[in-house]
Design brief:
Number of domains: 2
Radius of gyration: 21 Å
CATH architecture of the largest domain: 3-Layer(aba) Sandwich
Distance between the termini: 9 Å
């Protein structure tokens, strides 16, 4: 798993679509337009058209909706659970977990929080989410004993690995687990959970594809090149990660 972690982190900047397209545009422009290489000029035009499309039109948002999030809209919380599991990756996850615990009066249900820092150089990074969680516990309607901090993990696979080890250690391997994570992240999480034979029931804390306003005028008003590229990157990265996860 160490090899998988380092390879994934080292190659991430390269496989991010927007990075790859920008580098390609620079190279194809120089060789195709400036150096007048006909074939590379055609590649520049195609790359430019594709880049413009995903920048202006919310292609990534639609891909995330139809392929990753659609089936989780309208998800319900099953209160008949043994634990709530929250892998690191977004402050909204732990907030949602605490909200569910209080709303459904799950006084005897513990939140299993899996902190983590994916940085290659941990000495130069701070786990802000973990610090946020500890601060949140001290200032919300929940006691410290209600949250179990699992050993630090570096990625989603290790999040579930730590969860599995904990359940085995306390002899509750067959527990029913409510997973709280981003909607687009659920399918990959379920793939991983099956590798550990865990009984996981997902609930989304956030939808990338959900919008507060609809219609052509509102869509025009909310055009954001940065957001469109970010969503497209998120979809491709999640797709590639899911493919690699299937082979682990």
């Amino acid at each position: 798993m160490d090899i998988y972690f380092y390879i994934s982190k080292i190659f991430t900047p390269v496989i991010v679509p927007s990075n790859f397209l920008i580098f390609s545009l620079i190279i194809f422009f120089y060789l195709g337009i400036y150096k007048k290489k006909i074939f590379l000029k055609k590649l520049f035009i195609l790359s430019f058209l594709f880049f413009s499309t995903i920048s202006i039109i919310p292609v990534g948002n639609n891909l995330i909706f139809f392929f990753l999030e659609k089936e989780f809209y309208g998800s319900k919380v099953d209160p008949n659970i043994d634990f709530i599991f929250v892998p690191s990756g977004g402050k909204d996850r732990i907030i949602t977990a605490i909200k569910i615990k209080n709303e459904y009066n799950l006084d005897d249900i513990k939140i299993l929080y899996s902190p983590g820092d994916a940085s290659l150089n941990k000495k130069k990074s701070i786990d802000g989410e973990n610090n946020f969680t500890k601060s949140l516990v001290l200032n919300s309607k929940i006691e410290e004993k209600d949250i179990v901090y699992l050993p630090e993990a570096r990625n989603t696979f290790e999040n579930f690995e730590q969860l599995n080890k904990y359940l085995i250690r306390i002899k509750k391997k067959n527990s029913k687990i409510l997973l709280i994570t981003h909607a687009y992240h659920i399918k990959r999480s379920l793939i991983i959970s099956k590798k550990f034979n865990l009984d996981i029931h997902p609930y989304p804390s956030f939808f990338f594809s959900k919008r507060d306003s609809m219609g052509f005028i509102n869509s025009y008003q909310n055009i954001s090149v940065v957001r469109n590229l970010s969503n497209f990157d998120a979809f491709i990265k999640e797709l590639i990660s899911s493919m690699f996860t299937s082979f682990l």
